[in-house]
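[INFO] parsing input record for GNAT family protein
[DEBUG] input buffer:
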Amino acid sequence: MEPVTLRSERLVLSIPTLDDAERVFEYCQDPLFETYLSTPWPYHRSDAEHFLGEIVPSGWRLGREHIWALREHDDGPLLGVVGLHRRRADDPGSLDVGYWLGAPHRGHGYMAEAVRAAVAWAFENAVAVTVHWECAVGNIASARTARAAGFRFTGIGPSQVATRDGGHPDHWHGRRLAGDVDGTPAYLAWPAEVTGEPAA
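[DEBUG] output buffer:
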């Protein structure tokens, strides 16, 4: 599949390149990434170069991963990353969403806006009929972003993605269906600590 650039009200979602390596390396030093993400830790510049030079282009080429950089304009610096990943062999019509935002850019609703744009693209182009979301229990920022992006909470269960030690601990889970619209009531109530605060 050819890479696609998306645009939302405030953002450009373009393909991250090796020119973004320093920003990716810088942002992935965040201690929260060690706690909540499956990215390598410690995170080295070579990890950023591998991600940008190999994983991103091969993911688009093979149709397995659709990864975008968030920018405020076409030539702007990378703010964060959102990706749609084909991980479920038993459900070829589904994708999993993953994302992270550099610490200086949190608190403005950027990621929820980007996730909405990426999911809308997947549905409008018949790339998926279901998009799944998960995060470690307690990752309130990720859960608030998913909720703001229209995901419905489906409960707690083992993670789809293995953690660094190869385990599948309990995670919060949610999903959006192609027929869902923002504001549709959740299947289950979101955890109390998730509700009532702005998304990242």
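[INFO] The mean pLDDT is 93.
[INFO] shutting down worker
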